[in-house]
Amino acid sequence: MIGALLVAVLATSPSGLGAHGEDLLVREKTEVKVTGFFRVRGDLLHNLDLDRGTTPSGLPLFSVPLSDPLAQDIALADMRLRTDLAVYAPFAAAAVKIRADLIDNLVLGSTPTLSPGTGNAPTPAASPGQLPASIFRIKRAYGEVLTPIGYFAAGRMGNQWGLGMLSNGGDCLDCNLGDAADRLAFVTSLGGHLWAFAYDFSAVGPTPYRRDAQRQLVLDNALDVKSVTFAWMNVRDDLSRRRRTRADKLTFEYGAFVSHRWQDFDAPESYLPVANPRPLTPASVMRRGYRAVAADAWARLTAPSFRVELEGAMLFAESEQASLLPGVLLRDKVQSAQFGAALETQLGGNDAVFVGGLNAGYASGDPAPGFGAFPNAGAVAAPGELDGAQVNVPRDNRVDNFRFHPDYRVDRILYAEIIGTVTDSLYVRPWGRLRLLDFSSTQLNLKSSATLARSIFAQSTPNNDALLGLELWGALTWESKDGFDVLAEYAVLFPFGAFNNPSQNLTATPAQLARVRLAWKF
User: Fold this and answer.
1) What are 47-103's pLDDT values in tens digits?
2) Are 72 and 44 in contact, with CB atoms under 8 Å apart?
3) Which of 434, 431, 399, 429 minimizes the C-alpha distance to 414?
4) Which of 282, 283, 427, 483 has its CA 20 to 30 A from that of 64?
5) Are 183 and 200 in contact (CB under 8 A)?
6) Alpha carbons 418 and 51: distance in angstroms, whole number
7) What residues have CB less than 8 Å from 114, skipping those under 6 apart?
8) Sign of CA dihedral 10, 315, 156, 40
9) Rounded Cα distance, 48 and 75, in Å
10) Phi then psi for 13, rounded to 5 degrees?
11) Against a cut of 0.90, is the pTM above it?
């Protein structure tokens, strides 16, 4: 029973809490399995600064060419070689798994040495024996075992849940980031459901080296950030879902989790840049009193002719002392209440010539200037800025903007490139897919969508206007069972009043993106 339920989770969250153990079988000898993909992408970005001038800080909304700030186009190409290695132990349902991105989103030509008569090659590392970070990254490394009472895993593992709106493992071909957790996890079955518990080492205090200069020491456990998560779910695997669909049966799947994170004390000097570094002392430690709770629910209904999938989350947090300066204390707490939801629908079966649907999403906002997608600590934004901290103690003690995971991609320009992710927003996205060719091993599909977006708070936008824009997208995809995929896509964003710049008498103009992606999967 445990094994069957663990297999079922694979389709829901390929790297999440209940997603491990589906391949743990007793083997007669050691087995090694290598999977992954190699991806090459080329982008042409046109007018992503929207020709609307600069923000109050003097910066455009998006980078412009250095040699000619009036130029419109930026072209680039990047690549990633991902390898997932699994080593299965003999005579036991146990394995060790590693994800290594040997080349991770490396921009072609970004690390050259230019010698006469040679081409480009990776620049020698700045430190002996080390490669640039974008050349080699170990993303995951963990061990897992299936026992008579349940499944246990330990190490750095993927963290995916539901649609990936909040927690996203970054497993898709076009994903760029991906969550990972340093985690101890246990999953078991009871009453036809999976029950999971996880303890995360979210962050630890300063880690000086021990006497052997190899191992590290956690200097003070009172400074650690800790997380515990409980999850409950009922899911099926892809094969079971297809069988039920062919039998004209409905399949209802669901799950929920609640997570608690806390930190009692902190030593900001250990991680913030300081003008004159000094040894850490008891005076470097300050009370933090941070507590946060996140709850997420996910459900999917699949029928022969439609699919509906929904995820909703809420996050509450409080920090008794938000100051980053030891000895400088703030009088009031900083609090947060955030809400987010994503809906995906599909009319038509997966094998139909034409399918379509309506997707939508909501991310709560904050009335502070800027979207707060990727703010810098302490960087309070002025009205008209694109981004900035959503808290300004003591005038503003709340951070209420919910942020989608950047790998949950709903468009190609507005959220993906300019803002950075969905936050402080409401969007609707009708979409369709038409199968142009269908061979035994290959399909040619035409896909399209339109994303209409507005901000929850007009004050967050550069022009104090809630209407963000309309983005149209189309793509041709060549998808083959032999592992070679091609994607050619084009998107155009028509910005609305939120991005106009009346102080410079400029109106935002459309931005465009064209991309070609080649992928080899193994």
Assistant:
1) 999 999 999 988 899 988 888 878 889 999 989 999 999 999 888 788 999 999 988
2) no
3) 429
4) 427
5) yes
6) 13
7) 120
8) positive
9) 12
10) -150, 95
11) no
